[in-house]
Task: structure prediction
Amino acid sequence: MSIEVKNISKLYGEQKALNNVSFSIEKGEIVGFLGPNGAGKSTMMKIICGYINASQGEVFVNNFDISTHKIDAQKNIGYLPENNPLYLEMYVREYLHFNASIYKIAKEEVEKIIVKVGLSPEAHKKINQLSKGYRQRVGIAAALLHNPEVLILDEPTTGLDPNQLAEIRSLIKEVGKDKTVLFSTHILQEVEAVCDRVILIHHGEIIADKKLKEFTENKEQVIEVEFDFKIEKQFLDNIPHLKSANNVHDTIWELTFDTSKDMRPAVFDFAHDNGLKTLNLTAKNKNLEKLFRELTA
Ligand code: ADP
Result:
């Protein structure tokens, strides 16, 4: 097991930030740690990395107990803290060499990591000259320098524009091919885009811990469709297996079907047969979304 969290509780004074949290993550998994702001994600990650102590419970990273074998555990962890604190006045290469020297890592490793995270065109610049996306790459590079097996990324995509977001997501996927990754986010779509398992946390407690596909394996299926024209609801009743139709906005409908068969072709055919065009057609992960919406409402 790469990460094992057993019955962790954390009190900040009177306030309970984590309440009896347990989960384990196997080697090679990419897991999304999802929860609204204030749920306890950062606190849990800091405890896993040994930056703060739990009030109760145990954490093992690659079988090293973080409270009794902190240095051994930390050798196995690369950590990107929330807001990615960097020395903005330093040059990218200088900053990474500085980090490498702390860990006594060979200089050649810095160049390899620069290539790996796609920093080559920016590596000669000062960190304060970089876009937010490239700053995140510097933070991820620093976390990867000592070649840890486990990567803990705290809100790695917050504040990125859509292009940067897509790039950092694919970088996480790429580095996740040979690492165990736990990354936190308060954005549901983030989890769906990057990982195959989600741990959902709310008010310091784990609400769900499942493979994403388990959320979709039930019989119900939701499709969001946008037509090029407004239509009446009864029109839609001709689509087989339709359970309900919700007019989200103007020409956008949320259709719920009582089958696990992919109904997107049927919706497409329906539109075509009725002289409509489908401007957008998306299968939605209703269960997780519903659960998350309820929690964050
Ligand atoms: P998240 O990362 O999910 O946004 P946090 O772990 O940062 O959540 O915070 C969990 C709860 O603990 C919040 O209510 C937050 O205000 C509180 N908290 C976090 N850090 C501290 C601290 N150093 N002192 C007191 N309360 C804290």
Q: What stands out?
A: The two ends are 35 Å apart (CA to CA). DSSP finds eleven helices and 14 strands in the chain. Residues 162-175 form the longest helix (14 residues). The CA atoms of residues 230 and 250 lie 6 Å apart.
